[in-house]
Amino acid sequence: MAKVKVKGKKKAAKPAVDDSKIGKTVGVKSGAGVSETWNAVLIGNAKAKKTDVSLLKTMKAEFPGRKKFQPVGRIRSFFNRGVQGFGNPPGTNVRGTGKESFAYDANGKKTDSTDWGQDRKPSAALSKLAKKRAAEQWGKKKAKAAKKAAA
User: Cα–Cα distance between 117 and 17 in angstroms, integer?
Assistant: First the structure.
């Protein structure tokens, strides 16, 4: 980094991009932000026809300092709807225009993208509550059926 003299003191010149952000919010190769890079990756995937796993590996290589990424299916949905800076240009709904992004399988054929994140197992307390509510609903249905049969 170049040194700059300021009133007799040497001060480090401010880089064009903060070094601490490279690999986290600024791409290592592209120098672009996360949203812009996702945009480019999804547009380029129309010809490449890579799987979602491969697209995620590309993003992890571009942003090695980033710990978490949104699921590719969610990003694709944002891209196609033109929300959160995605779209062509950003903010434009691209569905039905031939510019939308699709999920592809290992053979390069279009497939349904249902990857909205990992399924989470409910906590023990939540599953107890769900069981209790289901039992209440069953009891109401049973009582209603008995009442109807008696009438």
Answer: 31
